[in-house]
Task: structure prediction
Amino acid sequence: MRDLRRSDCFTYSYLGIGADKLVAPFSFMAKAVVHASKCWAARIDMGIFVTTYDKEQCWICESKDSPTREHKFKASDIRRHYGRQTMYVAREEEDGFKSLHAQGPNSKHLKFESVICHHCNSTLTQASDRAYDQFVHVVGSESQAEMASQRAYEYIEEIKGSEEYTNLFRYFAKLLGCHLADISAPIPTHLSRFVATKTDRNCIWLGVQPDHGYNDMVSRVGSHGPYVAHGGLIVITKKPKLLPTRLHSTATVGPIQFVYHYNLTLPELFEMRIRHPSFIKWCAEHATAAIVNPIPENKLKQLGF
Result:
């Protein structure tokens, strides 16, 4: 994978939080990593560097007016690949595999549990949605995933420094924030401010590569059809204390996987340790479990590593 923004490499243990794959007309089964639905806060906890939100409150602007739910898979991707046909969501959970039936693009199974107010989900983030659509259009014009990765890098270089460049990264920042809000985990203030266009300082790293889950599905089924997926939330921890250092996820359209992450800063981590010790403990416990029972190599590839 060629990173469109590069980062340093460390030795990690990690944990995963529920991934979904949208398939039709077939189903796809894979071993679960770790699924979690525990809420870390039932109320708003405002901090300087990180904040937790009530699930009924917009995590971008803090409003409780006109709540909506963001799609886990871009709605335009769903319509383009599936139209209004019957879909099945293949959800990976800790105790196995669960298949959910989705009637159409607006099915609740295709959306995050957390909310974004109507203003933020339409007017405020409309430019980032359009930037993503254009990016997928350019990258998706390549028939081979390897060529798509190269084209993505070239396209990013072409638009670098423009408003469209910043808005593209804002789209992936919005997805990452929704993953965090779904479990009421602490959300970096910089992340929410970046999505809300209150700062233009990009905090997201992005890469493009072939989706190994898609390749595995094709090898099992023998043919392929429409396919979109997301990798859930991966919290990467660093030894020796197994403190969270990176928030990681993936989004897939056909054979192409977008890998994106946010690197936690020392002030953000310090505040998490002071104000959200339960979350820090939870990360360490699951990371320890992942060390004892290492994630298989094929699963690592599916998660974008």
